[in-house]
Amino acid sequence: MLYRKQGRIAFIAVISILFLLMLTSGCVEDSPEETNTSGEATVFEGNKLTPISEQRNNAIQGTQYIDQDTYELHVYGLVDNPVNLSYEEILAFPSVTRFVRLDCVEGWGFDGKWTGVTLNTIFNETGIKSNATTVIFYSADGYSTALELDYLVENDIMLAYEINDITLPADRGFPLQLVAEVKYGYKWAKWITSIEVTDEPYKGYWESVGYSNNADVSGPAFER
Ligand SMILES: Nc1nc2c(c(=O)[nH]1)N[C@H]1C(S)=C(S)[C@@H](COP(=O)(O)O)O[C@H]1N2
Ligand SMILES: [Mo]
Description:
Layout: H1 2-25, E1 43-44, E2 47-48, E3 72-77, E4 83-86, H2 87-92, E5 96-103, E6 109-118, H3 119-126, E7 134-139, E8 144-148, H4 149-154, E9 158-163, E10 166-167, E11 177-179, E12 192-198
Parallel strand pairs: 3-12
Antiparallel strand pairs: 1-2, 3-4, 5-6, 6-9, 7-8, 7-12, 9-10, 9-11
This protein binds ligand MTE and molybdenum atom.
C-alpha cells in the first residue's frame, strides 16, 4: 500500500516537471499570449523584445505631433515620378516585419519588432534616375540624415509604422521611422515628411557636427 502511494506521488511529480519544462522550453513559444498588458509583442522569432516603456528615446526638439489625416510623405529629386503618399496609401503597400536592434551612439540600445514598407517598394513607384547616389530624409522637427542609395536598396531597408505590433507612438516618430539596420541611431530618422533622392553627398544634423556619415555600428562614431 505504502509503496503504491509513493509511486503515484513520484508519477505526479514527474508529470509536473515535464509540464514545467515544456512551458519554459519554447514549446509554447508561438502562442498568442506572447504579448504584455499593453498588447505589445514581447518575443519575435525567438528574440526577446525590449518593452516600449523601457526603450529610450532621443529627439532634438521633443515630440512632434503629426495629424495622420493631413500627413503626406513627399518623395522627389532624382526620380521619374515624384509622389505624395497619404498615411493610408503607405499602409496599403505590402509590409515587412523584422527583428532589428537600434544602437544609439551614446551607448544605449533596444531590440524591436518593426513593421513597415520598404524603400524598394516606394522606389518601385517613383523610379530612380541612374545617376542617383544618396537619399536624404527630412523630418518634422527640422532633423535630417542621409544614407547611400545602394545601402538602402541592397539591405531592403524599411520605413516602419509599427514597433512590437503597436502603431509607432508620437514620441517615437509617428507616422514613420527609418529602420537603418546596422547603422547608429542617428540614421533612424523619425517623423519623416520628405525623402529626396540626389547625386550629391549630404551631411545631416549630427553628421554635420562630426559624427560619422557612414555610421556603421561596428565603426567609429566620429569622422577623422
Ligand atoms: N526627427 C528626428 N529623428 C531622430 C532624432 C531626432 O532628434 N529627430 N534622433 C535620432 C537619434 S540620435 C536616435 S538614437 C534615435 C532614437 O530613436 P528612438 O526614439 O526610436 O529610440 O532617433 C534618431 N532619429
Ligand atoms: Mo542617438
